[in-house]
Design brief:
The structure is a single chain. The chain is α+β, with helices and mostly antiparallel strands and 108 residues long. The protein folds into 2 domains: 38 residues, no CATH class; 68 residues, no CATH class. Helices cover 30% and strands 34% of the residues. It has a 3-stranded antiparallel beta sheet, with no helix packed on it. The longest helix is centred in the N-terminal third of the chain and has 19 residues. The radius of gyration is 19 Å and the shape is elongated. It starts with a helix and ends in a 23-residue tail after the last strand. The relative contact order is 0.14. The N terminus is likely disordered.
Length: 108
């Protein structure tokens, strides 16, 4: 991939900032292109997943990932140091009748 193509791909990601899904996909493509171009052999990543149920209960999961690359392919992946904050979410947390529609508001 040429520098011009990478610049165009990165610039096009800014166009989708109003759409979180499209913007994220475009940024991922630009990042993947940069990783391939840089020929990185190892990567370390931190992940966090925030879950919010209809009842308002929350659970946050965090972990780290190590990846070994061979060109553009992941040849080894290891996830470690898992942390859970908040209790496990149950089926009752996801029932929409558990929330009074009048008082419900999205978390900020």
């Amino acid at each position: 991939m040429t520098d011009k193509q990478m610049t165009e791909m990165t610039a096009s990601a800014d166009h989708f900032d109003n759409d979180a899904y499209s913007g994220t996909r475009m940024r991922d493509r630009a990042l993947n292109a940069a990783i391939i171009r840089a020929d990185i052999s190892n990567s370390y990543e931190a992940w966090t997943l925030d879950l919010v149920a209809a009842s308002g209960a929350t659970c946050t999961l965090s972990w780290y990932a190590f990846r070994r690359w061979n060109r553009s392919q992941v040849v080894f992946e290891h996830h470690y140091d898992f942390v859970q904050r908040g209790g496990p979410l149950t089926l009752n947390d996801f029932r929409f009748t558990a929330v009074d529609p009048e008082g419900f508001r999205l978390p900020s």
